[in-house]
TrEMBL record:
Keyword Zinc: yes
The organism's place on the tree of life at top rank: Eukaryota
Gene Ontology MF, one: ubiquitin protein ligase activity
Domain spans labelled B box-type: 1-33
Family annotation (Gene3D superfamilies): Classic Zinc Finger (3.30.160.60)
Pfam family, one: zf-B_box
Protein's UniProt name: B box-type domain-containing protein
């Protein structure tokens, strides 16, 4: 029954308003609107609803399929992330272990250099201590001989005593200097860590930082001057400097800063 006209049945359908109405409503409130009988309108609308339903049903099925695909994608993403996370962990762990190995190797080199240097220092200390004792004995013997002996006693011992005193002086290279000078330290304290030098590869990881006992000694460095013979102003020229340490051995590492000044041959201008 119509809410506005309880005595009348709802038999009509106003299409523009989308409402079921009674005869009175059709003539009054819906005057001029295209009203049809409910039976006919229902028939027409049932058709379009079936069409719409046919179109909507596959959408729902597609949505189900796509939801499933999304769930699979989610699982694959999780799996992929977890695999990559594991790869990162493995890489970093392995890198860390290569670095730790590098650290052990460097510390070992420092230890070896320390032992070798200290061994040489202790050796030289011992040698020098023996020499000190020898010299003290020779000196005091000679002093006694000079102050307390008769001429005959002095003369009978003078040759070996002089030899002995002479040997004391030559051992420390007095006058001549040289590599066997007992008084000069034969080992340098030079030991450096060069952090930017490449240290090769370990398990495919590039490592940096080397230990060196070499220190550059400019008087042993050589410049290839042949390539500079024909050099002209404002022209690029290349040459090679060989860096060496105090023992004349070529440096095994790079990274030394080499500064050279070039003068004109015939004038004092630079
Ligand atoms: Zn009505
Ligand atoms: Zn209407």
């Amino acid at each position: 029954m119509c809410p506005s006209h309880p005595e009348l049945e709802l038999q009509l359908f106003c299409a523009p308003c989308g409402q079921v109405v009674c005869r009175e409503c059709c003539l009054l409130a819906h005057r001029g609107h295209a009203c049809d009988t409910a039976v006919r309108a229902a028939d027409v609308y049932a058709h379009s609803m079936r069409d719409a339903l046919e179109r909507a049903r596959p959408v729902a099925e597609d949505a189900v399929v796509n939801l499933d695909r999304l769930r699979h994608l989610e699982q694959r993403i999780e799996l992929q992330c977890s695999q990559v996370r594991d790869e990162v962990d493995q890489f970093i762990d392995s890198y860390i272990s290569a670095l730790e190995e590098h650290r052990r190797s460097l510390q070992m080199q420092v230890q070896e250099a320390r032992e070798s240097k200290l061994r040489m220092v202790h050796g030289q200390q011992l040698e020098l201590e023996r020499h000190l004792e020898d010299t003290r004995n020779a000196v005091s013997f000679a002093e006694n001989l000079l102050s307390e002996s008769s001429d005959i006693e002095l003369l009978s011992l003078v040759v070996p005593v002089l030899h002995r005193l002479e040997r004391c002086c030559t051992a420390v290279g007095s006058g001549g200097g040289g590599a066997n000078n007992l008084l000069e330290p034969r080992v340098s304290e030079c030991l450096q860590f060069l952090r930017s030098e490449t240290a090769g590869k370990l398990k495919d990881y590039s490592l940096f930082g080397i230990i060196t006992t070499q220190t550059i000694s400019h008087q042993y460095c050589t410049l290839n001057i042949e390539s500079l013979m024909d050099v002209c102003q404002h022209q690029k020229a290349e040459t090679m400097v060989v860096t060496r340490d105090a023992d004349g051995r070529p440096l095994r590492h790079g990274g030394e800063k080499v500064v050279a000044e070039v003068w004109y041959k015939d004038t004092s201008h630079r």
